[in-house]
Design brief:
The chain is α/β, with parallel strands linked by helices. It is 44% helix and 9% strand. The protein has 5 domains: 330 residues; 198 residues, no CATH class; 91 residues, no CATH class; 146 residues, no CATH class; 148 residues, no CATH class.
């Protein structure tokens, strides 16, 4: 017999070790590994990691298999892998009903179990007795299944198993929005069983989705039926969320060593080399010790201070675990593999040496990886004093098979038995390398010949839908329907894909089905959708955004292909809109916004595009894989006929009813206007008398109720009940208290202004004395009047008037009231009339009316839930409703219907603003996808405040009052609305230019001084207006900036972690009545998101954005005091607002000394009348919260800057700062 080569002998040595340490424990029946000799439970995650060493060794043998016995060893090792992977597959298939249920509920109780019995593969603990929902475990299984299949192992045997695996793909595809218990099975680190979004789970799911895509589970022998399909957009969403989270692991864990498996082997889930580097560095600098790495900060597991009698921790005890957390050698194994894949030999050697020092030798000389090292009980005190100084002892299992397996893999790589490519046959490790530029292909197709000819006049030559045959063009909803057939299996009771969403990556491919080829138009172009789809400029803007997105996100074979159909409905007065022509010319030029594009026809692009086979639509289960599923066949046949036809809108005209009198017309006038609730000015509260009804559009019925701080009398302003003449205040108060409290109104004026508001139009129109209540069916509303209204409705051409009449009808009669008209023999209800009006308003682009009717019809933006999820998963909370009383915070994804209900409840009767809120959420989600940097240092997006600031900015730019501004705001086209929101988020200056038909357009201005404010006579301009109108434009700059930052909740960098250091040195911080206790530092680490949200919630108690910003500045001054260690402690509870008010006093004293601007208002020498006014809460200059307007408008730095006054205030107010002796006080 030939002698063994050296490498053969060395491999035999590893084979003995693998056999003794790993394979000896494999259960012969199920193939699973028990956790230890005393615990027979088999965890999915640990089992998959255990088998990796066996798989690695089998590939090493395959390379040197020159003798039969080596081939046999190789086969034997491979079959152990297959046995284990199939054992896990069987255990999961036994729970197929859970997979089916979870697709719908995504509830932790419906998830697959995290561990099974190693004896028989059955469940070992109940659904609610363990944190079973661990998406990373199922994802890891799928990822390794894909890698092993690609390396040549056959693990999946039947098509039923293929459909089950396809459903596992659906199970993990929404990982980016499903909170789970994560890699340590704990969820929130207090271990109270609350799941949270974990970056390690999302990263693993992203890797599994990419690895599974288009993979044939039968390997080289399979056919189209055994291929797994993944929608590329789902993997991309996971990637986007992962990138926004790293290096953070979750809300309660600011860092976690478990992320090593996401940035390196086995997942390689991050494409950005810099982010990989930052995450690894953060882990090494904060979690690495002599004995491995800590899992996460303040991890109490197995520490001497942990109380073993209970699973959970009290919140206050987390601080005790700091610096004594267990260290796990497992992470050195990960780091060795990480550097081996980077081919960094020096680092590999360094960690191998470190690992060797802490491994344990067994009796027969084998090196074992222990589970973890803890500080011994008697040395805890010394370790607290000097972290890292004490010797630690082994706790937990030894050998720890998860670590041992990775250690053996590392050894095989170091000794050259394996190349890195063999452990990663799918080449995931190359993801972070630079890719060539993507060229986006664009095809424009005309609906019919007429549109084709119109385009030809502009020298743009396109084909019609008929001419592109045999390729069929369909809307995205067809593709979404076809995908519901994917993964269906009657025998297993699995129903296929549930989510109806298909993103731009999926519609940018061509699809083949038997001998047909389909192209799909993108989802955003689907006109059956929402009113924003009828704004052409916005659609073009979205198109540019999507093209830009494709440039960065496309990683499939071939080039992306965007197909657009130009339809009749896009025409503007029978012409192609100019914006469209300009965009098409840009596309033709080959570049648009920095992305390379090619405009061409479909057949030119057949060879360069990605083509996916829709073979899963065959009737495989009935034994006819070549025939289409009968349901699909009927769906396609029906759909092809009607996919691009339009329906007619309703006609309101006709009928010869002449109104007997026009007196009623006035009574409905402004009915829509009455529902508005956007508050702009906070100065002139309830000061307006009845305004004459001069101009039709601005006929104010209800002047907006201006907000005043600290006034608590609630009076609703939106009662739709005309009183019988001016009623007595007592009766009025009673009548109003029944309704929802929508706005606090100044008690000094409330009775007068509310009566005026409610009876003003009554007096002007001597309305018949009828009491109409919204929720009463037995109304004594005379039939004749309804007839008159309907007659007027037919006769008026003006859509605004129709809107007012319909609003009135809805308020009095309800949406389903039968109007007595007939349309093609069908009864017409008020709802039908509203629909007709909505469609007309969309065509005529009357956006204010469109928003209002959409709200009354209860429409919702299609992507609302998706948009909110996009914001939430990037760790931004959203609030809706107008602060301070009606804000609702959304902290977890909600279904569409609940979301819409929540938004509309928050705004009471104000349908327009509720619609605007939905719209803005969609734009915010677009921005956070394309320009995440706009949202840095913002934790909560308060949509109500943002709307108020938008109106304020318009009123400032147009120099008009608040009411006109909110009217202009609601009439902005969706495109301009998105544009205005962008300018406000980015803080850029803008100007408003008026376009034809009274539409406004928002333009960026390069210089901040576009025009001097003209002094338009606004009657008697009060306070702030008068001051600002007369002084140069630079004034108000800091005030505006503080207002924007305050409304957007923007804070300085590292603000929250710096507040943590202040909190550590005092007993608490009081802000607007909320106290942040020092105990928060006991339970949360400085960088923890949960801590930031606590501080944020306290700051959100402050209604005025500019005042909130000054409080943030005061907190920053306190952080400087603590960071420079000026004093050992800051004493008791600090009232932050006292500091701000003290600073204001100091400011006014200085102003009096130098005769500054503030001597005109707050620094005046007071006489009797003024004092009275000050007592009633009205500052002359209109400054919020009794702080002078001029302090808000001072720059932070400089000798008169706000920071200077804040520092002086801190020195005066805090007892701990020395009062005597020399102290240098210069603000750098």
């Amino acid at each position: 017999m030939r002698s063994r080569s050296n490498s053969g002998v060395r491999l035999d040595y590893y084979q003995r070790i693998v056999h003794r340490l790993i394979l000896a424990h494999q259960e012969p029946v199920t193939g699973l590994f028990p956790a230890s000799n005393v615990n027979s439970h088999a965890w999915i995650r640990d089992n998959v990691y255990c088998i990796l060493a066996v798989w690695g060794l089998s590939m090493a043998y395959k390379k040197i298999a020159d003798q039969d016995e080596d081939r046999a060893k190789c086969y034997e090792l491979e079959q152990s892998c297959v046995k284990l992977m199939r054992g896990l597959l069987m255990a999961m298939m036994n729970q197929k009903d859970k997979v089916e249920k979870f697709k719908m509920t995504q509830s932790p109780y419906d998830s697959l179990h995290a561990k099974y019995s190693s004896k028989n593969g059955l469940p070992v603990v109940g659904d609610n007795e363990w944190g079973h929902l661990q998406i990373d475990a199922v994802s890891l299984y799928l990822l390794i299944l894909a890698q092993m299949t690609a390396s040549g192992l056959q693990i999946v045997f039947s098509l039923d198993e293929v459909s089950f695996i396809q459903n596992l793909v659906f199970y993990i595809e929404s990982a980016y929005s499903i909170p789970d218990y994560g890699i340590w099975e704990r969820g929130d680190k207090t271990n109270h069983g609350e799941p949270e979004l974990n970056a390690s789970s999302i990263g693993m799911a992203k890797a599994a989705l990419e690895a599974m895509n288009e993979l044939d589970l039968f390997g080289a022998r399979g056919g189209p039926a055994s291929v797994i399909h993944v929608l590329a957009d789902e993997a991309h969403k996971c990637q986007a969320v992962l990138q926004s989270m790293l290096p953070r692991e979750s809300n309660s864990k600011e860092l976690d060593s478990g992320l090593l498996c996401v940035i390196g082997f086995p997942a390689f889930a991050v494409d950005d080399a810099q982010l990989i580097h930052n995450t690894k560095d953060a882990i090494l600098s904060r979690l690495q010790g002599k004995y491995g790495c800590k899992r996460f900060l303040r991890d109490g597991y197995r520490t001497p201070k942990e109380d073993p009698s209970r699973l959970y921790y009290e919140r206050w005890e987390l601080r005790m675990f700091e610096n004594i957390e267990c260290e796990w050698p497992l992470f050195y194994c990960y780091l060795i593999l990480f550097h081996a894949f980077q081919s960094d030999k020096r680092s590999v050697q360094e960690y191998a040496d470190r690992l060797e020092k802490i491994m344990v030798r067994s009796e027969d000389g084998i090196l074992l990886v222990p589970e973890s090292y803890a500080v011994p009980q008697d040395l805890v005190g010394f370790e607290y004093q000097k972290p890292g100084s004490q010797a630690r002892e082994v706790v937990g299992r030894c050998p720890f098979l998860w670590g041992q397996s990775l250690f053996i893999l590392g050894r095989l790589l170091q000794e050259g038995f394996l190349a890195v490519g063999e452990l990663d046959p799918l080449n995931r490790r190359l993801g972070a390398q630079k890719k060539p530029d993507v060229v986006v292909q664009v095809v424009i197709i005309a609906e019919d010949n007429e549109i084709r000819d119109k385009l030809a006049e502009h020298d743009l030559h396109v084909q019609t839908i008929a001419e592109v045959a045999p390729i069929e063009v369909q809307p995205a909803r067809v593709l979404s329907h076809l995908y519901t057939y994917l993964g269906r299996n009657r025998k297993l009771g699995l129903s296929g894909r549930k989510s109806r969403d298909v993103g731009i990556l999926s519609t940018s491919k061509l699809y083949s089905l038997k001998d047909r080829i389909f192209a799909f138009t993108p989802q955003f172009a689907d006109l059956s959708r929402f009113y924003i789809a009828s704004d052409n400029e916005l659609m073009i803007d979205i198109l540019k955004g999507e093209i830009n997105f494709l440039k960065s996100a496309w990683d499939l074979l071939g080039r992306p292909l965007v197909t657009l159909v130009l339809k009749r409905i896009h025409l503007d007065q029978d012409k192609i809109p100019l914006a469209m022509i300009q965009t098409m010319r840009k596309l033709k030029s080959g570049y648009i916004n920095g992305t390379r594009v090619m405009l061409g026809s479909l057949k030119d692009f057949l060879n360069t595009s990605a083509i996916t086979d829709l073979s899963f639509l065959g009737s495989t289960e009935d034994g006819y894989p070549d025939r289409l599923h009968p349901d699909v066949q009927t769906y396609l046949d029906e759909h092809l006929l009607r996919s691009f036809s339009n329906r007619s809108t309703m006609n309101l005209r006709g009928g010869q009813l002449r109104p007997r009198t026009l007196r009623r017309r006035m009574s409905c006038k402004g009915a829509i206007k009455k529902t508005r609730s956007i508050n702009v000015d906070s100065d002139n509260l309830g000061m307006e008398g009845p305004s004459p009804l001069t101009e039709r559009r601005l006929s104010s019925i209800v002047p907006p109720p201006w907000l005043q701080p600290n006034k608590q009398s609630h009076v609703s302003v939106f009662a739709t009940t005309p009183e019988e003449g001016p009623s007595s205040p007592r009766q009025l108060g009673h009548e109003l208290s029944v309704r929802e409290n929508i706005y606090p109104v100044d008690p000094h004026n409330s009775t007068r202004s509310a009566i005026d508001r409610r009876s003003e139009f009554v007096r002007q129109q001597e309305m018949p004395k009828i009491l109409i209540q919204r929720h009463r069916a037995d109304t004594n509303f005379a039939e004749t009047e309804v007839e008159e209204l309907i007659a007027m409705l037919r006769e008026t051409e003006n859509l605004e008037e129709q809107g007012d009449i319909l609003q009135y009808l809805v308020d009095t009669q309800g949406l389903d009231f039968n109007t007595g008209m007939l349309e093609e023999g069908r009864v017409v209800t008020v709802r039908d009339l509203l629909k007709g009006l909505y469609e007309k308003a969309c065509q005529q682009k009357l956006w204010g009316l469109v928003r209002h009717t959409a709200g009354m019809l209860g429409k919702r933006v299609e992507d609302l839930a998706k948009a909110v999820t996009d914001l939430l998963v990037r760790q931004k909370q959203v609030t809706v409703g107008m602060p301070p009383n009606n804000e609702h915070t959304i902290t977890a994804p909600l279904p569409e219907v609940e979301l819409r209900q929540l938004i509309h409840d928050a705004y009471g009767d104000d349908e327009s603003t509720a619609m605007l809120t939905q719209e803005l959420m969609v734009y915010l989600a677009m921005f956070i996808r394309t320009e995440p940097q706009l949202f840095h240092e913002m934790l909560r997006l308060r949509v109500g405040l943002i709307i108020q600031v938008m109106a304020k900015e318009l009123s400032r730019t147009l120099n008009c009052d608040g009411e006109a501004a909110s009217e202009h705001l609601l009439n902005l086209s969706p495109f301009e609305m998105k544009n205005l929101l962008y300018h406000i988020l980015s803080g850029k200056e803008f100007a408003v230019s008026s376009v034809a038909r009274g539409n406004l357009s928002i333009v960026s201005c390069k210089s901040s001084r576009v025009s001097k404010k003209s002094q338009i006579g606004l009657g008697d301009p009060e306070g702030e207006d008068a001051l600002i109108a007369t002084i140069d434009d630079r004034q108000g700059q800091w005030l505006r900036r503080r207002r924007l930052d305050g409304a957007l909740n923007r804070v300085p960098r590292d603000f929250y972690s710096r507040v943590w250091t202040v909190l550590e040195k005092c007993q608490g911080l009081a802000i607007e009545g909320r106290v942040l206790q020092q105990s928060l530092t006991q339970e949360m680490t400085p960088g923890e998101l949960k801590f930031a949200l606590e501080v944020e919630t306290a700051l959100n108690q402050i209604p005025q954005p500019e005042y909130r910003q000054l409080v943030v500045e005061a907190l920053m001054v306190l952080t400087l005091v603590t960071e420079h260690n000026m004093v050992p402690t800051l004493g008791g509870i600090i009232y932050v607002e006292h500091l701000v008010h003290k600073a204001n006093q100091l400011f006014l004293e200085d102003q009096r000394k130098v005769q500054g601007d503030a001597t005109l208002c707050c620094a005046k020498i007071k006489d009797g009348k003024e004092q009275q006014q000050a007592a009633s809460g009205m500052l002359l200059c209109g400054g919020a919260a009794y702080i002078c307007q001029h302090l808000y408008d001072s720059a932070p730095s400089g000798s008169y800057g706000t920071m200077t006054y804040m520092s002086r205030a801190v020195a005066l107010v805090l007892d701990c700062v020395p009062k005597h002796g020399e102290m240098e006080c210069a603000i750098s």
